[in-house]
Design goal:
By secondary structure, the chain is an alpha+beta fold. It contains four helices and five strands, in the order H-H-H-E-E-E-E-E-H. Helix 1 packs antiparallel against helix 2.
Length: about 200
Amino acid sequence: MRKVGVAGSAEERVGVRPRGTADTLFWAVLIPTAATVGGFVSQYPYGMLWVGVLIVLAAAAAGSIVAGSVWRRAGAATVVGFGVFALGLFAGSNLNETYLKQLGERTGAVVVEAGNRVNGKGDVRHFCRVLDDSGSRAELGDIQNCHGQFATGRRVVLFEDRLGGLDPWIEAGDDRAVDPVGLGITAGLYVLIAATLLSAGRRRR
C-alpha cells in the first residue's frame, strides 16, 4: 500500500507540474501585456483615456490577487501591483511617441497660439493650437508633447497617425528618433512584472 501511495503521489506531481507551469506563463505574459495595451489605449481621444485606465486597474488587481491570494506571495503581489501602474503610465506615452514618429506622416505646421489652462483641481494643462500646411487646425496638449516649450509663431513638425485614430505628435524638427530612456524603462518594467510572476508562480504555496 505504501508503494502504491508513493507512486500515486509521483504521478500527481508529474501531472500538476505542466499545468502549473502553463498557468504561471499565462499570467506572466497576460498581466504586463494588458498593462501595456491599457497604457497605449489611454492615448486615444474620445474618452478612451478611461478605458485604458480601467484596463490597467484590472491588470493590477488581477496580478495582485493571483500572486498574493492564490499563490500566497505577498511581496510579489506588491511588486506586481505597483509595477503595473508604472508600466501603464510609461508605456502609453512612449508607445504613442514611437508609433507616430516611426510610422506617422510628417506634416509642417505653425503654432498659432500656445498657453496653459488651470482646471478645477488646480492642475496646469498646456495647449498648442497649430495650423498645418494643408490649412487644418488642431489643438494639442501634454499627451501630444506640448508642454509649453513652443512659442506662438514657431514652425513645428506634426507626426500624424495614418489611420486617423491618434492626435498628432508635435516636435520642433522632423527627426524620427525616439526617447531610448523611456522605452528602456517600459521594457524594464515589463520584464520586472513578468519575472516576478514567474518566480512567484514557481514558488507558490
